[in-house]
Amino acid sequence: MTGLIHRNSAGVFVIAATPFADDGGIDLESTDRMVDFYLECGVTGMTILGIMGEAPKLSDAESRVFAGRVLDRVSGRVPVIVGVSGGGLDPMRSLTADVMAAGAAGVMVAPMQGMGPEDRLEGYFAQVCKALGPDVPVCLQDYPQTSNARFSVDSILRITRDNPQIVMLKHEDWPGLAKLSRVRAETGNADQPRLSILTGNSALFLPQEMQRGADGAMTGFAYPEMMVQVVELALNGDHDRAEDIFDAYLPLVRYEQQLGLGLAIRKETLRRRGVIASARVRAPGPAMSGTDHDELTRLTSRLEKRLKELG
């Protein structure tokens, strides 16, 4: 059995999609295949019910069914973080209690939409941590592109110092490399506890993030084996080989990163890889055009050719 997430958690915590059938219901058989696929790719952990997981489009009952299915299938082989973000503390507390009892390794919390100024962010996370209880490790999600709430480095430092159960930062600010460097440089000392830093943004900046001190990745790129290789090589200091591998996948990483359409592309790629049965995205959501499908076919074909050349 794995333990809880902690300040030195490292590796690839893949953000899992939520598979839907063509009729819109949760596809539990595809969920099982997806979990097996991620484990076969060598991920260190998984994160479910995040933005990529379309959590806001799930009912409370669906969220619990899906989380329970993933946790049962993983069966303690890797840590699973569950997204519990939401406006109300009571539903957040209830979902957290249930998933932690079912074997989750921690929870991820983003600020409420548009929350600011920073004293409100700091007050909000103090309330969240009090509501969840001191034994629940928390990953703070810094993703202003979707939350419209921006943390300064100083605010992150204060929040994590004042709330010691926040042990991990999901870093997704953009541009954010300088921010990452500061958080790494200014944590892990007598006054400021270390933070595990896992990065998102579809892995678009992963090699540079690793070189600046990130501990790994937390994103849902449809080829998680790339992230596993890049993170492992980077943690072992082989940045040149890490970048060689990353560069082969970069056109597809970039294509998947399109705001709005990216989730549809990612799900279609997982469908083509035999992971999920349908690429259905719940409404309101994007749909790929015929041209999009043709471009994806060309990109994946070129990726296969490049990987053969790399050996």
Going across the major beta sheet, what is the strand order?
1-2-3-4-5-6-7-8
The average pLDDT score comes to 95
- Determine the fraction of residues in helical runs and give it as a percent range: 40-55%
Query: How many helices in DSSP terms?
Result: 12
Largest β-sheet summary: 8 strands, parallel, barrel
CATH class categorisation: Alpha Beta
| Total E-strand runs | 8
What is the general shape? Answer: globular
- What's the alpha carbon Rg, rounded to whole Å? 18 Å
> Helices and strands, in N-to-C order?
EHEHEHEHEHHEHEHEHHHH
Cα-to-Cα separation, first versus last residue: 35 Å
**CATH T-level topology:** TIM Barrel
Structural class estimated from helices and strands: alpha/beta
Q: List the uncertain runs.
A: none
The appropriate CATH architecture is Alpha-Beta Barrel
Strand content: 5-15%
Supply the number of structural domains. Answer: 1
The CATH homology group name:
Aldolase class I
Pfam families: DHDPS
GO molecular function: 4-hydroxy-tetrahydrodipicolinate synthase activity
Keywords: Lyase
Protein name: Dihydrodipicolinate synthase family protein
